[in-house]
Amino acid sequence: MVSSGSNAWLQFNIRTLLAVASVLVIASMSQAIAAKKEKLLVATTFTVIADIAQNVAGEAADVVSITRPGAEIHNYQPTPRDLLRVRNADVVLWNGLGLERWFEKFISRVKNATDVVVSEGVVPIPIREGPYSAKPNPHAWMSPADVTIYVRNIERALADADPENADIYKTNSDNYIAEIEVVAKSISERLSVVPAEQRWLASTEGAFSYLARYFELKEIYLWPINADALGTPKQVKAMIDAVRDNNVPVVFSESTLSDKPARQVARDTGAAYGGVLYVDSLSEADGPVPTYLELLRVTTETILKGLTGG
Ligand SMILES: [Zn+2]
Fold it and tell me: CB–CB of 118/93 below 8 Å?
C-alpha cells in the first residue's frame, strides 16, 4: 500500500513537472517568436536591391535576397527553399519594369507579405529591338539618379510597414543618397576627360542604358536583354559591324552569363576585351562587388580603364 501510494505521488509529480516544463518551453518559444517578430523582415528578389534595402534598414530591419549572389535574375527558377526563406517576410521588394519574369507567380504563393515595386516613378527607357521591343528596360538601378528613386521608395515601404522606425529609415536614406552622390560625382569627373567619340559602352546585354544615359555614353550590345536568344550568329555579326563602324575601342561582358560572345566580337574586330561588368547581381561578401556602391564603382572603373587604355 505504502509503495503504491508513493508511486502515485511520484507519477503525479512527474506529470506536474512535465506540465510545468512544457509551459516553460512554450513560453520561451513564443518569447523567441515575439523577439524575432519585433524586427521587420524584408525580402527582395535579388542581391542589388537587398543591399540598397539594407542600407535603408540599418539595424532596424532584416533584409534577405531570394536569389543568391551571381544568379541570373531574369529567367530565374525559384525553388521550394526560396519560398520557405520569404514565408515570414513582412514586405517583399521587387524591381518591376519586366525584370523578374518569375516573380508574380512566386509572390502569389507567399501569404501576408506586401509587395512593393521599387522602380515606381523611374522614367523608363524602352528596349529598342527583339521580342521585348518597346517594353521598358528594367536596369534602372544602374543610374545614380534613378537609384535615388529606389532608395526613397524603399524608405516609404519600410516606414509604412514599421512606422515606429520611420525616422531611422529617413536618416539612413539621406545618408545613403549622399554616399551615392559622392561616388557618381567622382565617376562623372573622371569620365569627362574621355573624348566624346570614344565614349562607347559595348557589352553583351543591353543592361547599361540607364548608366549610359546618366554618364553620357553611347551603348552597343549583343542582345537587348537576357532572354531567349543570347549571342546568335546574327546578333554577333550586327555587333561586329557596329564595333567596326564606330571604331569602338573595347568590348565588355556581363557577369552572370558567359564571356565567350564578347571575346569573339573583340577577337573578330581587333577591339580590346575589357573584362566583366557587373549589373544584375552582387558577388559574395569576399568577391569584387559585395555592395551596390562597389558594383557601381568597379563597373565604371572597368569601363574607364577600357576606354582610356590605362
Ligand atoms: Zn539584366
Answer: yes
Q: Which of 112, 146, 181 is the last residue of a domain?
A: 181
- Cα(79) to centroid of ligand 1, in Å? 20
> For residue 254, how far is its CA from the centre of ligand 1 (angstroms)?
8
My answer on whether 105 and 149 are in the same domain is yes
* Distance from residue 208's CA to the centre of ligand 1 (Å): 9
* Spatial distance between the Cα atoms of 126 and 213, rounded to a whole number of angstroms: 12
Compute, in angstroms, the gap from residue 36 CA to the centroid of ligand 1.
34
Cα 303 to Cα 14, 59, 125, 160, distances in angstroms: 73, 34, 21, 39
Give 110-169 pLDDT, tens digit per residue: 877 889 999 999 999 999 888 888 999 999 999 999 999 999 999 999 999 999 999 999
Q: What is the pLDDT of residues 182-241, one digit of tens each?
A: 999 999 999 999 999 899 999 998 999 999 999 999 999 988 887 667 788 898 999 999
What is the Å distance from ligand 1's center to 303 Cα? 17
Total count of domains within the chain: 3
CA of 234 to the centre of ligand 1 (A): 20
CB of 211 within 8 A of CB of 303? no
- Residue at a domain's end among 181, 203, 232: 181
